[in-house]
Amino acid sequence: MQTETLDLELPIDADIIALDKDDRIVALIEVKINQAKEKAAKQRITDRALEQIKHLLSKLSEKKVVIPYAMIVNLENIIVFKWDGTVLSEAVLSLKTADILHYYDSKLGEQRIFEPYLTRLIEAWLRDLAYNWKSEIPPASEQIAAIGLLPLLAGGTTQSGVEIGAAFIYRN
Predict the structure, then answer these.
(1) Residue 15 in contact with residue 161, Cβ under 8 Å?
(2) For the chain: N or C, fewer Cβ within 10 A?
C-alpha cells in the first residue's frame, strides 16, 4: 500500500468519511441540522454543505485523488452525489432520513436531535450496509446498490470528525 501526504491549501473538516475494505475513501458525508423553519433558509444550509463538498473534492482531484461519492445528510433527507474526478453529478439518490434512521432509533423525531447524534446514526447505517450487523437487509440497501455504492462500502468502515488537509494521509 502506498502512502501519500496531500498538501492542500486549508484543512477541511469532513463530518464522516466512508472507507472501503482497503481503507480508501469512497464517500464524503456532510451532516447538517436545519433548525430553520423556512424552506429557503434550509436550502441555503444544504447549498453551503454542497459547496464545501465541491471544494474538498476539487482540491483532492488536483492531487489525483478521486472519491466516488458524496452525501449531504439533514433531518429530512439523505442526498447522494457521484464524483468522477471532474464533475459532481446532480443527486443520484434522495432518501428520507427518518425512513432510514428510524430503524436505528425508534424514537427518532420524538425529541430534539443534534449533529453529533445524527452523525452517529448515519455511521450506524453505513456500517450496517458494510457488515449487516443489525439486519440482513439494511434500509435502502437496494437503492444504494443500484447507484454502485454498496459494493464499495462492503467490508469497510466509517470515521467521523476527520480533518482533511496537509496532514491527511490517503492510502491507495
Answers:
(1) yes
(2) N
Q: How many CB atoms lie within 10 A of CB 44?
A: 13
- The total number of residues shown for the chain amounts to 172
Among candidates 127, 119, 125, 121, which has minimal Cα distance to 161?
Answer: 119
Across 57-66, 84-93, 95-104, 124-133, least confident range: 57-66
> Which three cell numbers, joined as nine digits, stand for 46?
444544504
* pLDDT confidence bin for 55, thresholds 50/70/90: confident
pTM equals 0.84
Enclosing domain of residue 41: 3-171
Q: How many domains does the chain have?
A: 1
Cα–Cα distance list, 35 to 3, 38, 113, 139, 161 (Å): 40, 9, 10, 26, 21
Least confident of 45-49, 158-162, 167-171: 167-171
